[in-house]
Amino acid sequence: MSSASGLRIIDLRLNVAATGNDIVDGINLTIEKGRVLGLVGESGSGKTTVGLAVLSHARRGVEVAHGQIFCGDTEVLALDNEAKRKIRGELVSYVPQDPASSLNPALRIGKQLIEVLEAHNFGGSDEARKARIKEMMAEVLLPTDDEYLERYPHQLSGGQQQRVGLAMAFACRPSVIVLDEPTTGLDVSTQEHVLKTIRQLTRDHGVAALYITHDLAVIADLADDVAVMYSGRVVEQGEVSEIFKNPAHPYTRHLVAAAPDIASKKSIIGLTGRAQSPGKRPVGCAFAARCELVEDACRVEFPKMVLVGGRQTAACIKATQVASVMISSAKPVSARTVGEPVVELVSVSAGYSGNTVVHDVSLTIRKGECLALVGESGSGKTTVSRAIGGLHREWTGSIRLNGRELKTMARQRAVADRLAIQYVFQNPYGSLNPRRTVGDSIVRPLVIDGKSKHDARRSVLEVLDKVSLPGSYANKYPDQLSGGERQRIAIARALVSEPEVLVCDEVTSALDVLVQAAIVDLLSDLRRQLGLAMLFVTHNLPLVRSIADEVAVMSEGRIVEVGPSESVIGNPQQQYTQSLISATPSIERSMR
Amino acid sequence: MKASILRFVLKRIALGLLTLFIVSLLIFAVTQALPSDPAEAILGREATPEALEALRADFGLDKPIVVQYTNWLSGVLTGDLGTSYATSTSVSEYIGPRVGASFFLLLIAAVGSIPLSIVVGANAALRRDRKFDTTSSLVSLILAAMPEFVVGTILTIIFSTTIWQLLPAVTYLEVGAPPWSDMKGLILPVLTLLIAVTPYVARVMRAAMVEVLESDYVEMARLKGMNERTVLWRHAMPNAVGPAFQVIALNLAYLAGGVIIVERLFNFPGIGSALADAVRSRDLPVIQFLALIIAAVYVLTNLLADIGTVLVTPRLRTRLK
Ligand SMILES: Nc1ncnc2c1ncn2[C@@H]1O[C@H](COP(=O)(O)OP(=O)(O)OP(=O)(O)O)[C@@H](O)[C@H]1O
Ligand code: SF4
Ligand SMILES: [Mg+2]
Known about the structure:
heterodimer; A: 592 residues; alpha/beta; Rossmann fold; 8-stranded mixed beta sheet; 6-stranded mixed beta sheet; 22 helices; B: 321 residues; MetI-like fold; 13 helices; globular; binds adenosine-5'-triphosphate; binds iron/sulfur cluster; binds magnesium ion
């Protein structure tokens, strides 16, 4: 083995212990020292399972079936328990997805940092260890004073918690590090800091880093190499530039096509269907059911990794032809028509128990148009959208619907006004009643409204059709649906009252990028067909260019910039918007 | 920080005292409303109306109820608990040693059951779905389902009558003698109380521990290379005992009630047997005081549990102003 290789995974397979079904199989990855490999794939594809295996750990109910993992020269899967314990945190360390739940709430952060060093007897003396902690805190740009180290995790912000996680991971100078979506849930500016820190630390200390994420732009920005996982297998890998410029596996191509990009106005393309879970996976290529190039040969056995060029390989029997066959069939982005104002906000301020968090917001949403409201977490986006929907009590100013003044709360408003504004929530899991069939959930507003059963039933079929689901879905329960399907149902439920305005609050943030693209596509179609006015609340800046005509940027409760999305994102005037945009990673920018 | 905790504790104590005051009102109202007349209960059916009247006046039962209550409360506060109707001795003299004996019993049961249930519960969680867990779960389920008098009777059959004659079936403890003067006689009552509460607390502890062991931070501690001992004692335990405290408190309060049955069963001279006697003879001063004592135990254990939970939970502790 060459001394340059930091991490080598050879033919790894992990099973569900109870059934023997594979969760991941045939994983082969190499990461050289000082390099970052980005592992992408949708939720459930097995990324975390692979990442944990590198620390010779499997979650409860999961077992290693076969394979080898070399961290440097140590084969970690072959170690006994005590030896495993010793390498964890010292030779190979882990940065978890959710820092808030991964730091122990009952221990001070200083204690949690120093105990890693103690466990591995790093530094030899308490003074040396204390000095090392301060050094690490400084490297991740956190205060080094004792008061700070005495804090408990809940006294830190999300970004600070994640940096503590990084300090902990790098503390013993490991040679391999696994980062499992360490920036999910962080604001872009915080994410930028964290990514910078990661890049610096891996380069400076010659660490081989496995960076797990579902965000392609982050990988383009940070990683040297990429491996794409689908349904428990690596389907394509290579250098970042190779993969993003010329994806060779149809799945990768779809991923890239579905990813919105801050640097270009691009209509993102979704893909319906979903990957099968362990035990239900088909023989042959797992992507076959969703692949437009599928042929009989694909279903015979799992396609071998084919060398496409350079270091790029792909597990597809058509890998070398894909580029010429699959020309992205992007829909033209329709020309903008300026419609009548439907909803107007004039000097709206809002707060919670006397504390004003939204200041003097004025906005106009027009017929057939989408206005995106963007901003970092805590900027007041949701408060504004809830005030429009009549779900927030404490606000002043004026909100007008078609020129008519709206009452504060939904229940004070006229029935017609109430039905005219519909709200789709962030979380497709929480917003549907698990005990009701989808059809029942959809007709509820109608039944309350006094429609006959027969009419209601017809309306359900109509709206299901509008959100591209078959009528048979009316009889399903929420837990029988995927995340994307649930979000479609939530949209259908909003459409059934034939609204004029749709308020969508972070409706795609829990979804994988292919599903997100499909939902965005659906919303754009509906807007055009039904002439809906739409408020799209999101923290996802790149998405704005693909969905919205107009954008309003919010910061600390105020609108800092508003205008056509092309000019605001393409040529921002305010410093705040400029910094947001430059902090947002982009595939196109990275590939230039 | 320190001052804020002190303030919190003081506030809880004040709240506890308020609770006790309200309880004292209830106790007084309920006991006074008991249908039978204490004077009649003591003098019997054939007593002349004059004699009854005289006795009532003696007890102060002829005064307005508000005056009776304030007299009683000020008595309790100044340590003058009145005179027992049945024994004509001062209540403090009659009850004092019994309260001490019962507290001693309760104390050993608590000191034994808390660590025992924590250890059993934590171990079951650690060896989840393995032999220790399934066995302890089954055993604790069976024990929890049995009332104290059944447990006590079975223990007596095993240890002092039918099978082995190792231990006395009843306590030979003089009233007023220190409870530890008959250690052998204490074993069965204590054991019965232990069996009454340990299974329940152990099950709660197991559930809390299972949840904590599944948490991200415990997984993270393992991935940092902490050894299992540290994972258990430093990372898991402090997060599991918080919720367990509340249940332990409820069970100690329950013990205060359970002690009555156990004392009867083993003829232990504590508040349990005193209360039973007092109820039979409508001995109001004794009933009222004992009810107040039991309520105080209840309030105190809950107070301690609340304070304990806040102290072991930094998120709650740092929120104190
Ligand atoms: N303890 C377990 N027992 C059985 N199956 C499991 C277990 N944990 C995960 N799985 C299954 O293994 C598959 C891969 O899970 P994994 O967490 O590795 O995915 P992931 O790519 O990290 O997803 P995400 O992006 O949502 O974090 C999923 O289908 C999941 O349902
Ligand atoms: S192997 Fe066949 S089904 Fe699979 S991705 Fe390639 S062309 Fe599509
Ligand atoms: Mg994961």
